[in-house]
Every structure is written in C-alpha cells, then in structure tokens.
TrEMBL record:
The keyword Zinc applies. ATP binds at residues 100-107. This is DNA repair protein RadA. PROSITE patterns: RECA_2. The middle region has homology to RecA with ATPase motifs including the RadA KNRFG motif, while the C-terminus is homologous to Lon protease. The gene is radA.
Length: 458
C-alpha cells in the first residue's frame, strides 16, 4: 500500500512558469520567482528516474597533448572593437549570445559583421525571425552590408532554419533572434522556457558538429537581464551585452562570459544613420572643446575594462530659492554626488547647503567608477570658488567620508593615456608603490586628502 501511495505522489501533476521555469506542486496565479501573472501552467508529471546504458564509443578519448588546438584558433571579423571584446575574433564552433535593449543596434552590428566576414571569402547565413527578408536587405543597402556569399532567410520554424543550414553549409550563422524561433516538436509558445531550451540546444549541437560559429541575438527584460531561462547563458560559450543610451550615438559592448578570452574588455561603437563603426579612440566624445578654461569643469580618466577613457565632469552651483536645495545629476550616481557634497562641506569648509547643485558628464557617458570622485569634488569646488582648473590637467582618485583620497588601480595606465592625448599635469592619490612610469615632461602631484588637493589647486 505504501508503494502505491509513493508512486501516486511521484506521478502527481506539476506546474511550471512559462517565463522563468519556476515549478510548484499546485497551481498559482502568480509566479513565485519572476512575479509574472498567468504564466504558470500544468506540465506532464515526472516519471520514475531511469538510467542510460553505455553504448559503443564512436570517437575514443585522446590525450590532451594530442588534441589539435588549431581548430579553435581565432578568425578576425575585420571589426576591430568586436575582435577586442571576443579576445581576437570568432572561434569555429563557438556560440555567442549578443543581448541588448530594443533599438540599441544589435541587428545593425551583426549585419555589418556578416557582410565583412562574407567579403573574406566565407559563407554566412543570416536567419531573421523578426523581420522580412526585404526589410533586412533595405538595412543592408543603407549601411553597405551587401556581399556575394551572404545568404538571407526569414524563418521562425526551427526545423526550417536547420534545413537552411544543411543546404547553405555556412561558416558563420547569425540568428536574429533566438526567442523568435520555435520547434513544432515541443509544447509552448516561441520565447518560452521550453522552446528557448530546445532551440538553443539544437543550434549549439549544429554549431559544434559542423565547426560553425553561431551568433545569437537575445532579448532583455525591463531590468536589463537576458530574457528566458538562465540556462541559456550557461549553454553558450560567450555572452556579450550591447548597451547604450537612445539619445547618444555611443554604444558599448562588454563580454559578461567568455570561454575563449578575457571578460574585462570593452568595445566602443558609433551608431549613425549610415551604419555602425568601431571607435578605437572614443575619448574625444566625452571632452568638450573650449578656447578658454571654464570654472566648474574637470577632466578625469576612467577604466572601462582594461581601456582608459577620458571624460569631463561639469558642475554648476546656483543659490537656491527653496528651503531644500535641488541636487541634479546626469551620468553620475546621485547618491555618491550627494556624499561628495557633504564631504566638501564638512571636511573642506565649503558652504554648499544653500546652493542648488547640477553635476553632469559630457557626451552622455556614465561614470560609475569610484576613481572619478576626486574629479567630481574638484569640479564642484571650482564652481563654488569660480576659479577654473588648469586646462591640461586631469584628476582621479576615490574620496572617503573622512576626506581621504584612496589609491585606485591602473594609475600608470591612466597617466599614459592622458599624456597621449596632450595633457601635461595630473593630481592622483598617494600609492605605496608610487604612480609608476611617468612620461617625460608630465607632472604628477600626489595627494592624500581632499583638503590637500584643494590647497594645491586653489
């Protein structure tokens, strides 16, 4: 009797969320994981666990020293910024997931990559599930992405897409997007957990068996995470985030996961009406050009991955007409700017409690690194005293609540980038190992407190 009861419990129906895959023993109207309404549906009951018998080995295991590593060598795409992020180029058989918000430029970038790879003599298949073939061709003509060995098909059926792969036999496959393909052999709508798992597994299997590099476009949710099950990120070899503001032409690509290269590189792109281009030196977008020094501005050097970027911080103070002064920021963390205002008032005796403060970056760049604290504080102090900082000076360092200036990584790398762009002076935090190698003719002043930096400049 106990055996019958246990079997009935094992075969009882289960319920699964169609968005995130969360399971529960009874039906609920709202998912307990992703909080989505109406996505929990009944699934087939799980049967008794079974084991798989061993079969004859088709390919015997090799000693690691005998494995041919040349099959996993990089193949450049002629898009320098993408090659930088990937570690050198595309690896045969690799599956790369490119995720980003709608309209950020994912399809434009991958269409440009497809054309460049096709011009190198390799066959490329572009599978679109969101647009018609005519719409994609119009974009290709606009950005100049036409090539003889670039094939295009509009498919939303997984079996049809795999049939196109069999027929064309491409070296590079681009799927835009993985959430639009569906398999008729699996229940659920396109983009659901079950469908995304099946589509991803089939495409990965085809990529590995054929040595075919595959680029998958992925949608993101409202909070910026990749839509669908997290299993998708574990299955693929590389996960890239493509991000940027709608009002800015700058686009950044970061490798969140990379089995073949580093994950601390950032690629910069310029999105225009005529296409997308890589920016080998994007610092000029974040620095304003003025003939005379202006109070309330300071140049800093931030690290995006391993790449140093120059950016300008601007501050404006105005006497407030309200009892509660206004604090407005753009491109900076508002809570951190408020902290720096308090530190300047308490540790440097600057009376800022009656002033409206407006602090922003140039070019729409977002500065989240603590190393930008010193430049923000100096820009605010410059605006308060109405004294302009030297035009060829940079400043960086983390500021603490006690008014100390803490060391930051990559001091020498930041100084060398500033010297390359024509700057001659730098205010940096004191470091036990010193600022490192300093270019000839470049002056570096080390400070340990914010008060010391203000006394040095004002």
């Amino acid at each position: 009797m106990a055996t019958k009861t246990a079997r009935s419990r094992t075969q009882s129906p289960a319920y699964r969320c169609g968005e995130c895959g969360w399971t529960t023993a009874k039906w609920v109207g709202r998912c307990g994981e992703c909080q989505a309404w109406g996505t929990v549906e009944e699934t087939a009951a799980a049967g008794v666990a079974r084991t798989t018998a061993a079969t004859t080995v088709a390919r015997p295991a090799l000693r690691i020293a005998d494995v041919d590593a040349t099959t996993a060598s990089y193949q450049p795409t002629e898009v320098g910024e993408l090659d930088r992020v990937l570690g050198g180029g595309l690896v045969p058989g690799a599956v790369i997931l490119v995720a980003g918000e709608p309209g950020v430029g994912k399809s434009t970038l991958l269409l440009d990559v497809a054309a460049r790879v096709a011009r190198l003599g390799r066959t490329v298949l572009y599978v679109t599930g969101e647009e018609s073939s005519a719409q994609v061709k119009l974009r290709a003509e606009r950005i100049g992405a036409l090539a003889d060995t670039l094939y295009l098909t509009a498919e939303s059926d997984l079996s049809q897409a795999l049939g196109q792969v069999e027929k064309v036999d491409p070296a590079l496959l681009i799927v835009d997007s993985v959430q639009t393909l569906s398999s008729p052999d699996v229940d659920g709508s396109a983009g659901g957990v079950t469908q995304v798992k099946e589509v991803a597994a089939s495409l990965i299997n085809a990529a590995k068996t054929r040595g075919m590099t595959t680029l998958l476009v992925g949608h993101v949710t409202k909070d910026g995470s990749i839509a669908g099950p997290r299993l998708l990120e574990h299955l693929v070899d590389v996960v890239c985030q493509f991000e940027g503001e709608r009002h800015s032409r700058l686009r950044l690509m970061r490798a969140v996961k990379n089995r073949y290269g580093p994950t601390d590189e950032v690629g910069c792109f310029d999105l225009t009406d005529t296409g997308i281009e890589g920016l080998a030196d994007p610092s000029g977008l974040f620095v304003s050009r003025t003939k005379e020094p202006v109070s309330g501005t300071c140049i800093t050097v931030t690290l995006e991955g391993r790449r140093p970027l120059l950016a300008e911080v601007q501050a404006l103070l105005a006497e407030s007409a309200n009892a509660q002064p206004r604090r407005a920021t753009s491109g900076l963390d508002g809570s951190r700017v408020s902290m720096l205002l308090a530190v300047l008032q308490q540790r440097a005796s600057l009376q800022l409690h009656k002033d409206d403060s407006y602090v922003a970056t140039v070019g729409g760049v977002k500065l989240s690194e603590p190393a930008t604290d010193l430049s923000v504080a100096l820009a605010i102090a410059s605006a308060k005293t109405n004294q302009a900082l030297p035009s060829r000076m940079i400043a960086f360092g983390e500021v603490g609540l006690a008014g100390e200036v803490r060391p930051v990584p990559g001091i020498s790398r930041r100084i060398q980038e500033a010297e390359r762009l024509g700057f001659t002076h730098a205010v940096v935090p004191e470091s036990p190992n010193g600022p490192g190698r300093i270019p000839a003719g470049f002056t570096v002043k080390q400070v340990s407190t914010l008060t010391e930096a203000l006394e040095l400049l004002f």
